[in-house]
């Protein structure tokens, strides 16, 4: 009986791996090509939305990078929601040329609620047709001078949702910030580039995204712990595609404290579970109800929202238990199975980190070779934390808490690096 259960677990895990096998195509394709966009014929009018909670240390640099854009300034209006701020965020935002609305509602704390408040004020004061599209940024972001120009090229070709190249201001601070940085670049190489080339829908990752005005005509309605993942699933279920602009580069700050990183990953995990259970059924319905490529797009987005790390842990634990029972309770079998699986996953993550850094070397800051090797070796911890937090999130109530940003880095410094 135990032998049969072990075979069933192996079969189910193999079937699950098969369901994700199309990711290999994205990785291979992304190594060689991605979608490029032609020079835009029209300079569209954009609103930039920034949700900021006690971000006085960084928001000024973001606004400065926006002022340095090579895009016509009269086509850009910057809006900031100072969300439950107790510092000078609002004053700095206004001094930097932004239209700032202040919000005080600590009962509804997620970024989604702040954006919902901001959109209501924009529609009231400017109307629903004042802008062609809306950019979303976090207060710690920095934009390369041609960022909006590059995103406008994609928008002008008819793309309604466009995400961009997320880079890191503090890559080389420590192994934690480096792990985050490699994670974002890994997504570029293994997901964004390939999906964009095939005309499929990739995923939005919190910030650095452009949305068509039509999508926000009824306001901002995504208020979960991971509003970006919620938006992705909802948009694809409604028949939208999410494109990627490789040439539009922006930077943000990553955590360097393990406690803060763990807290953030726990929120991501809880939000991912919520989206899977709430939007997954609409994506599943889309697989059977839609036609043509949209069937696969729904399936692909469902695979993104699927909590694979959770099932990976469950399978590993069950195999360890059953193998131990089959070995008549021999204790060495349990750690052998658990650590054997962990060793394989660790090596795989290291190889993927090395591949990512190799492919993106032209955009990386200068680092000592031994630090690069250290970051490759420690990167698997990032994925391990994701598995742990996914298991914890399944049984734990998680509240949104802000991530502190302290980097005073300016965009010209990033360009030099």
Explain this structure:
- This protein is of the alpha/beta class.
- It has 2 domains: 2-26 and 286-393, no CATH class; 44-257, Spore Coat Polysaccharide Biosynthesis Protein SpsA, Chain A (Alpha-Beta Complex), CATH 3.90.550.
- Helix content is 54%, strand content 12%.
- The protein is globular, with a radius of gyration of 22 Å.
Instruction: Please report the total strand number as a whole number.
Output: 8
Number of helices: 15
CATH class of the largest domain: Alpha Beta
* Elements, N to C (H/E): HHEHEHEHEEHEHEHEHHHHHHH
Low-confidence blocks of residues: none
CATH architectural arrangement of the largest domain: Alpha-Beta Complex
Distance between the termini: 60 Å
Question: Could you list some keywords that capture this structure?
Answer:
Spore Coat Polysaccharide Biosynthesis Protein SpsA, Chain A; single chain; 15 helices; alpha/beta; eight-stranded mixed β-sheet; 417 residues
In short:
This protein is an alpha/beta fold and 417 residues long. The protein contains 15 helices and 8 strands.
């Amino acid at each position: 009986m135990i032998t049969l259960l072990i075979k069933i677990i192996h079969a189910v895990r193999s079937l699950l791996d098969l369901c994700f096998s199309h990711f290999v195509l994205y990785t291979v394709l992304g190594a060689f090509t991605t979608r490029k966009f032609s020079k835009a014929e029209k300079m569209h009018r954009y609103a930039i939305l920034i949700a900021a909670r006690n971000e006085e240390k960084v928001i000024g640099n973001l606004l400065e990078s926006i002022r340095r854009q090579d895009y016509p300034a009269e086509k850009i209006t910057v809006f900031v929601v100072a969300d439950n701020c107790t510092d000078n965020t609002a004053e700095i935002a206004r001094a930097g040329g932004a239209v700032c609305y202040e919000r005080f509602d600590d009962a509804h704390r997620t970024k989604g609620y702040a954006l919902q408040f901001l959109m209501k004020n924009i529609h009231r004061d400017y109307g629903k047709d004042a802008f062609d599209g809306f950019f979303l940024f976090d207060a710690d972001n920095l934009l390369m001078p041609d960022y909006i120009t590059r995103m406008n090229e994609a928008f002008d070709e008819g793309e309604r949702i466009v995400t961009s190249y997320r880079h890191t201001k503090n890559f080389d601070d420590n192994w934690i910030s480096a792990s985050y940085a490699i994670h974002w670049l890994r997504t570029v190489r293994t997901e964004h580039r390939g999906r964009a080339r095939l005309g499929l829908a990739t995923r939005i990752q919190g910030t650095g995204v452009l949305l068509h005005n039509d999508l926000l005509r009824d306001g901002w309605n995504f208020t979960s712990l991971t509003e970006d993942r919620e938006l992705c699933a909802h948009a694809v279920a409604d028949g939208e595609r999410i494109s990627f602009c490789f040439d539009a580069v922006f930077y943000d700050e990553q955590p360097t404290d393990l406690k803060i990183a763990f807290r953030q990953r726990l929120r991501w995990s809880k939000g991912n579970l919520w989206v899977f259970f709430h939007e997954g059924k609409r994506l599943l319905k889309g697989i059977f109800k839609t036609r043509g490529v949209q069937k696969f797009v729904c399936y692909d987005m469902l695979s993104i929202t699927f909590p694979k790390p959770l099932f990976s842990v469950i399978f590993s634990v069950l195999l360890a238990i059953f193998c131990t029972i089959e070995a008549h309770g021999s204790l060495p079998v349990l750690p052998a199975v658990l650590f054997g699986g962990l060793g394989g996953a660790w090596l795989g993550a290291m190889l993927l980190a090395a591949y990512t850094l190799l492919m993106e070397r032209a955009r990386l800051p200068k680092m000592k070779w031994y630090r690069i090797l250290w970051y490759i070796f420690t990167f698997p911890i990032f994925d391990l934390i994701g598995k742990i937090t996914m298991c914890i999130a399944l049984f734990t109530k998680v509240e949104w808490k802000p991530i502190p940003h302290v980097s005073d880095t300016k965009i010209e410094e990033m360009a030099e690096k």
